[in-house]
Structures are given as structure tokens and as C-alpha cells.
Please model this.
Amino acid sequence: MVDFLIGLFLASLIVALFTTRLYKLFLWYSINSLMLGMLALVIGKNIDDDAMIITGIITIIVKAIGIPYILKNLSQKFHFIRQITPEIKVQYAIMLIPAILVFTFYLSAPITSMINTNANYVAISISSLFLSLLLMIEHKDVASKIIGFLSIENSLFLLGISATNGMPMLVELGIFFDLLMAIVVINLLFHKEEMKI
Amino acid sequence: MLTFLLLPAIVMFGVSFSQNEKFKYFLAFISFVILWPIIELFLLPKPYNILSDYLVADKLDTYVLLVSSIVGIGVTLALLTLDKHVQVSPKAYRKFYRFFAVFWVGLIFSILSNHMGIYWIGLELATLSTVYMIKTNYTPATHKEAWNYMIVGAIAVSLILFGIILMYASAKPILGEDAMNFTLLLKHAKEIPSPFLFEMGFAITTVGMFVKMGFFPMNLWLANIERASFYPVAALFSGILESAVIVGFFRFSEIAMQVNYDHLFIFIFIYTILTIFIVAFLIFRAKDFMRLFSLSGVEHMALIVLFWVSGAPFAALLHFGAHAFLKPALFLSTGVLESNGKYKIAGALRGYKGKKGTLFWFLVSLFLLAIISLPPSPMFFSELYGFGAMINTAKQGDHILAMIGAILFLLVLLSIIFYRFVAIYQSMKYEGKEEEKTVYMSELLALIIFAISSISLLLPSTLTYLRSIS
Model:
């Protein structure tokens, strides 16, 4: 089950890299977050960790439902251009993405060899981190860059789950709080006109 | 204690919603109130647990908190006359204070944290709140730079979190959930089962912190943002936000030194020299005060980091304190210096009339010459101690000649910066047209506070305190 979910996590991120429509990008981010939340629930249940189960539920509510909904509302309010063409052409992206995956597995081998649990998951979370960076790089529009930043946060969350069997609850909640603060700031940044003298 | 530390920020947040124009005077007064709990902290025995073992005040963070508070007071004083120098709407003004309060809360958590996770949360909160402070200046260039800061800042903070997770993973087998606790990590550093994993985490976290401070390869990133935003933002960056970042570096590097000192030293040594090498030439080409001071800030932060890892924490802390007072003072002065145009360096120190004007140009001259380490600037002494410590470190190994070569190379780079600053000072004082400029009492008061604070760093009691930290 965990392998299946982590596969879907990675797949949703890869599909997001090829998306040319903004709302589809929000959808893939939502699916990516949903997989992450379900992973936390399943791993939390397997290791009998209540804190991770709570984190999983919050992830699904905040990241899979709340943030995509807010971003969609913002995009309607501020009339975002919904056509988001990646700067990297599809034929190059097809070669680049597997190369990044292989490269990160090779690069993270010294790290994963020291982690006793879920070594492959750690490699996947590091490769997700690089793919999220690629998502930020390949788009010029701000909305896609925001999704890239949120995906980086998802990758780090996955790393926290897989490499350490979950971070302390206090830290997880703090990260959620910061994420909500980021959304508030992003919302304010879109208000271009109100500061005019 | 935590309530008293957070109270000024909470009151500031609340008062910022007031529509009354006089609210800013009250906020300037509130910023002074923070000194009271910090003085209390100084008097308490150290380490003092503020919130269980999550927030602990020791000698290092009490010092950093005091320095940051003085900078905060200076900035709020200078903010009183912000609308006299730049165009700012009342709404933007109020929002600036609101986010300044959030920024302050984040910094208190960051500076006092004894927990890697809480440190990161505080830093992220401070970073996000700064984004909006940048945007207070309503221009398309600033809007672009605010987004730029949001994205690059988020990547830098993500790198820090990435490194923290790896460090936590490396120590969790022996410490469990307490593997995030700085004190326990330091105590058990030599028992970490996967030192390589810890070092990887430390290296990634360090790169994230260095990106935030504008080190190689992001040298111009911070300078461009500070140029685009209002001058108090640059003062907050150099005096407070960078303090929070550097205190994190001190904490992480203390543990990394126990794990493998040689690896840490070589990594930091190469990184900082590369940064100073690039920054020296960028300073040489700088054509406005903001970029000049910003790039000089990068150079000084690199020196602080270098002194710290070279086994001279006293020199690093002295340099840190001096930089935290001098640089915001210079940034706040740009509000007046740039009265007649952003790129008018020639004659910028001319045209000041009366007692206030004379005192202003005298103080700015003092700060400009102190920042390039002319004696008796605290920076002169910190650099002497710092370079001395680097040679002492080299003596213990087999690389004394390489170290002397590196110090000579550093001195050449520092002399390029010195030459540029002296040339700029001469141009400000003796060239250009004499155009009348106005200095306001509140900004003069802020500069006086910074001058007194810089001088107080050389008091025997301060030096003894700094030595006791190291």
C-alpha cells in the first residue's frame, strides 16, 4: 500500500510538470498532497503513531482541499492567465525528468545507505525535491512557482516521514502554521492596487 | 518571561489596526519596552529555561537578542519620518508595522530556540513577514523583487529544513525525538551513529543560510531587493534578520565542529573566501549607497562566519555586534543621503546646516570609516583577533603556509573594499554640488543610539561578557 501511494505521489508530481493549464496544476497538486496525507495515515497506523495520523488528517484538509481551493479563488479574483506553457519543451522534459530521477537515486545513495528504514522512500523524496525545483524553474508565471514551492514543502514532508518516521508533532504543526502564513502573504502580494498613494 | 518578551510585538500588532495618525509615536515607545525583559534575562542565571527546554536563554542568545532589540528601537525611531523621505500610503504604513510585529515574534522564537524545528519555524515566520515589508514601496520593481524574495527565500528556508531533517535522522537512533534539541545534540555529537549523514545535513542547512545572507552564488540577490525596498527594510535585514540566521549557524556549527572539525573548516573556509572574492569586486563597481552597504554586509557576515569556525568566537561576536549596529545606521542614513537622487554619491555629505545637520554628517562619516575597520572601530579589533585565531588554528595542523597565503589574499580583497569606501567618502564630502538636505530629530536619535551602542562594545565589561560566551 505504501509503495502504491508513494508511486502515485511521484506520478502526480511528474504529470504536474507537463501540465499546461493552471486549474489542472492545482488539481495535480491536490492529488499529490492527498497521496502524502494518505501515506502519513498508513505509515502512522503501521507504526502506531497517533501524531503522524493527526498530521496526515491535517495534510489532507489543509493541503489537498484548503490550499488548492484558496489558490483557485485567488486566480479567479485576480484574473490569472490560465494557459501556463512550460519553458522546457515536452520532448526535452521527457528526457530530463528520468535523468533527474536516476541522478538523484545515484546522488542520494550515500545518504540512503545510512537510513535503516524506507531507504528508497528517502531517495524518492529527494528526487521529488529536485522535480519541484524544476517545476519552479520551467514556468515564468507566479502561480506555477507557488505550486513549485508548495511541492518542495510536500517533498520535505515526505522526507520527514520516510527518513525519520515523522518529525515531532510540534514541528509539524509549526510547518502547517507557516504554510498558512505563506498563503496569507501570497494573497497580499497579489493586491497590486491597494498601496497606491 | 516569554509573555513579557512577546508583549511589545503583540501590542504593536494590535495598535497597527488603529486609524489614528499618532499611533506611530506610541509604537516607537513600545519598541523601547522590549529592553526591560531582556535586561531581566541578563540578570538571571544562565542557561535560563523560558519555555521548557524548547526556548532557553544562554549568554549567546541573550547578547544577540539585546543587539537585535537595539536595532529594532533604532528602526522604529527612523520609521517616524519615513513619509518625509519617501511616498508611502497610511495603509501601507500600518501594514508595515503589523508585519514588523510578526517578524519580531518569529525572531524571538528563532534566537531563543534550543530546538532545530522551532528555530526553523521562527525563521520562516520572519522571512514571510519580511516579504510584505518589502512590498510597502509601491513600484513595479519592488513588486517583482518581493516575489523574488518570496521564491528564493522559500527555497533557502526549504534547504535549511531539508538539512535539519537529515541531521535529525542521523541522531534519532540515539536521542529519539530529542534529536532536535541543540544542547543534547552538542552533548552527544561524538556518539551520532551516522556522522556523514549529519555532515550532509549540516552542509545543506549551511548553504540555505548562506543563500539567505547573500553569499555565493546569490551575491546580488539581496542587494537588488534592498535597493528596491524602503531603507528601514534594509536596516532590518542587516541588523536583525541576518542575526537570527547567524545565530542558527553558530548553533549548528558548534555541533558540526564536534562531529568533524576539519571537514567543517575546509567547507566554510573555501565558501567564505569565494564569497568575499566576488563581493570585493561587486563593491568596487557599486554605484549607489544601498547596494554598496548591502554588499559590504555580505562581506562582514562572511568574515564573522570565518572567524567563528577558525576558533575565534570572541572575534566573531565582537564583529557581529559592531556590524549589527553600524550597518543599520548606514542604511537608515540613506533616507537623508539620497534626498536628491538615488545615484548621487558626489556631495551626499554636503549641504547639512545647523547643529542637527553637523551632527548627522559627523556620525555618518564615523560609521562609514568604522565599517571599513579603521581604528578604534570595534571591527578593527575583531579582525585582529580573528586573523590571529586563523593563524593559531593553522599552527595546530600542517598548513600554516597555506593559511598565511589565504590571509594575505583576504587582506588584498579587503583593501579593495577599503579603497572603494574611502573614495566614496571623499566624493561624498569634497565633490558635487552643495544641495540643502533636512535631517529629522527621530532619525538623528536613532543614529546616536547606534553610535553609543557601537562604542559600548569596546567597554571592558562588554569584552569580558563576550569572552565568557566563547
Q: What stands out?
A: Chain B touches chain A at residues 54, 87-89, 91-92, 95, 102, 117-118, 120-121, 124-125, 128-129, 131-132, 135-136, 138, 143, 146-147, 150-151, 154-155, 158, 161-162, 165-166, 168-170, 172-173, 177, 180, 194, 196-197, 200 (CB under 8 Å).
